[in-house]
């Protein structure tokens, strides 16, 4: 188990965070969180994964405490924060809110008024948090940054899914995620009704143009090279190969591809590619996938549409977190 970042209690200084320790048998250079298992549960990311992201963010934002709150706010003051929507959307990030505020005040009272995946209207009250005022103010920005981004991803994904309603195409994300936030961003895609692609380079084979160019430079035919590579893998490993021309499809199928990625194809070539593959492999479309193009892409008959835009250029949803002191700033009775 990785060591948690030490965090200041309610705004008091703490030592700078130490580097996380690697678990037994784990490469010390490997990330301490964001495992595929953490992202694939139906109930959301594992709590330990959420906590690791939140603690890293808090250690970055108040490494030795919140100087402003420590200087201005009496130590036992209580406060309540209200998370409200300034525009409609799809919510994601309940676990983040709980983890952020309870990291600084373990007794913080967190009331989530919507669940991950719920739609909400502008003006809606999404959550209430009560606790030590210094802790509430210290966690405010981290909680809001994360929940705004995650809800933005969920909302955009839901829009893509709505555009493809009535087709068989699934909307999927890509590895174009924010470093360190993949486990959360992939869950946000799920909350919006989308599907997850491979979580990491360790999850599946995906031979893209650069891989194929290096194979070609080494000489020999593509199909035998792909078959030899697949033979070296466990039978459970999914094998996907990218093509950017119709004349590559047969060789890739002969190489044993489970999925053929049709990259930057025109709509007509997507239709022809789907017809040519004829169910011998899954078909995935990527490239130029936007809200104004995704319907037409889905109507070509592809099985999967992967869109990096879901995570790499999403706009954070406009949510507000308003903080007020309880009972005129009376001391915290729990102290």
TrEMBL record:
Assigned EC number: 2.4.2.19
Enzyme class at the top of the EC tree: transferase
This protein's UniProt keywords: Glycosyltransferase, Pyridine nucleotide biosynthesis, Transferase
Domain Quinolinate phosphoribosyl transferase C-terminal: 153-322
InterPro entries, alphabetized: Aldolase_TIM (IPR013785), NadC (IPR004393), NadC/ModD (IPR027277), Nicotinate_pribotase-like_C (IPR036068), Quinolinate_PRibosylTase_N_sf (IPR037128), Quinolinate_PRibosylTrfase_C (IPR002638), Quinolinate_PRibosylTrfase_N (IPR022412)
Region called Disordered, residue ranges: 15-46
Low complexity bias spans: 20-39
Functional pathway: Cofactor biosynthesis; NAD(+) biosynthesis; nicotinate D-ribonucleotide from quinolinate: step 1/1
Family: Belongs to the NadC/ModD family.
Assembly, per entry: Hexamer formed by 3 homodimers.
Protein name: Nicotinate-nucleotide pyrophosphorylase [carboxylating]
Native organism: Arthrobacter saudimassiliensis
Gene behind this protein: nadC
């Amino acid at each position: 188990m990785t060591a948690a970042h030490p965090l200041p209690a309610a705004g008091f200084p703490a030592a700078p965070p130490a580097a996380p320790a690697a678990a037994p048998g784990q490469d010390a250079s490997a990330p301490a969180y964001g495992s595929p298992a953490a992202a694939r549960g139906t109930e959301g990311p594992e709590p330990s994964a959420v906590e690791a992201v939140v603690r890293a963010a808090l250690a970055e934002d108040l490494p030795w405490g919140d100087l402003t709150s420590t200087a201005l706010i009496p130590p036992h003051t209580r406060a309540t924060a209200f998370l409200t929507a300034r525009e409609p959307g799809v919510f994601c990030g309940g676990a983040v809110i709980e983890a952020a505020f309870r990291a600084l005040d373990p007794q913080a009272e967190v009331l989530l008024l919507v669940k991950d995946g719920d739609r909400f209207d502008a003006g809606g009250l999404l959550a209430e948090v009560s606790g030590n005022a210094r802790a509430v103010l210290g966690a405010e920005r981290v909680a809001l940054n994360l929940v705004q981004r995650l809800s933005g991803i969920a909302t955009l994904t839901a829009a893509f899914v709505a555009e493809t309603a009535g087709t068989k195409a699934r909307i999927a994300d890509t590895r174009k995620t924010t470093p360190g936030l993949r486990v959360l961003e992939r869950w946000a895609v799920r909350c919006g009704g989308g599907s997850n692609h491979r979580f990491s380079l360790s999850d599946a084979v995906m031979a893209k143009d650069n891989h194929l160019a290096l194979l070609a430079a080494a000489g020999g035919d593509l199909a035998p090279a792909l078959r030899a590579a697949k033979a070296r893998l466990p039978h459970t490993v999914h094998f996907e190969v990218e093509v950017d021309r119709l004349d590559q499809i047969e060789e890739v199928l002969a190489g044993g591809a489970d999925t053929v990625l049709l990259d930057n194809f025109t709509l007509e070539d997507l239709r022809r590619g789907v017809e040519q593959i004829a169910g011998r492999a899954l078909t995935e479309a990527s490239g130029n996938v936007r809200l104004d193009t995704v319907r037409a892409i889905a109507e070509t008959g592809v099985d999967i549409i992967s869109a990096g835009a879901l995570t790499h250029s999403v706009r954070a949803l406009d949510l507000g977190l308003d903080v007020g002191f309880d009972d005129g700033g009376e001391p915290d009775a729990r102290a």
